[in-house]
């Protein structure tokens, strides 16, 4: 079998091996996919070692996506824009870097949640790696507007140099504005905190999307209390994996049964 791995730190709770095993079973692809812990200062070494051992590709998760971006010898356009790589393909002496996070998010929103982002007002919270990785694919979905807000406002403003057509600001700028799709790409849920959103931020029929999964974040609770439809990041996780699987194997797995399986578990 061809070998793949996901690198992260921590990596123990990664669902990626189970997701790719399900994809392989479903499509009859003969692969093995394992989780590998890399030392915080050891990612590049670990990835190169894996390639030398015959690994065909790797996924990269927190905190190594920026380092993977620098390791790649060739970049997809979306990875170049994001300055972050979550999917590596080892091909001879070349290391191809791609980023499937944004495509996974947009696909989850469209195909699984049946929400069409074209023409909608989108608010993206956060300006770290997670936010940056999804901006270009969101813009390509042709929203009416994409506003990016961040607690440290200046970090949001800096993104304007990289992404044409976004609006940026701080949470105070949200007063009097409404959005049809509000995406949480901050890490605030990890510390059980809620970004300072005004009560009036959701339009009628809005979708609130938290890129986090496996827990109910204060943002999800806040959105629910305001009568908004809420989604967590499980669908995005499975969809970004499917996009990586497609890059490596040329086959697009069905994601719905895998998402359903994880929901049930
Ligand atoms: P990631 O790779 O997950 O994006 P990151 O680069 O550390 O992680 O970025 C974390 C993001 O969550 C940042 O946008 C951060 O805002 P700051 O730039 O102001 O630090 C945001 N964030 C974290 N905790 C937050 C909170 N309690 N409220 C609002 N934003 C928060």
From TrEMBL:
Domain Shikimate dehydrogenase substrate binding N-terminal: 6-88
Gene3D superfamilies in the record: Leucine Dehydrogenase, chain A, domain 1 (3.40.50.10860), NAD(P)-binding Rossmann-like Domain (3.40.50.720)
Origin superkingdom: Bacteria
Residues annotated as binding NADP(+): 77, 126-130, 150-155, 211, 233
Molecular function via GO: NADP binding; shikimate 3-dehydrogenase (NADP+) activity
Catalytic activity: shikimate + NADP(+) = 3-dehydroshikimate + NADPH + H(+)
Pfam families attached to this UniProt entry: SDH_C, Shikimate_DH, Shikimate_dh_N
GO cellular component: a single term: cytosol
Annotated metabolic or biological route of this protein: Metabolic intermediate biosynthesis; chorismate biosynthesis; chorismate from D-erythrose 4-phosphate and phosphoenolpyruvate: step 4/7
Record: residues binding shikimate: 14-16, 61, 86, 101, 213, 240
Residues spanning the membrane: none
Keywords: Amino-acid biosynthesis, Aromatic amino acid biosynthesis, NADP, Oxidoreductase
InterPro entries: Aminoacid_DH-like_N_sf, NAD(P)-bd_dom_sf, SDH_C, Shikimate_DH, Shikimate_DH-bd_N, Shikimate_DH_fam, Shikm_DH/Glu-tRNA_Rdtase
PANTHER family, per the entry: BIFUNCTIONAL 3-DEHYDROQUINATE DEHYDRATASE_SHIKIMATE DEHYDROGENASE, CHLOROPLASTIC (PTHR21089:SF1), SHIKIMATE DEHYDROGENASE (PTHR21089)
Family matches, as HAMAP family: Shikimate_DH_AroE
Family in the record: Belongs to the shikimate dehydrogenase family.
Subunit structure: Homodimer.
Protein name, as recorded: Shikimate dehydrogenase (NADP(+))
Organism of derivation: Novimethylophilus kurashikiensis
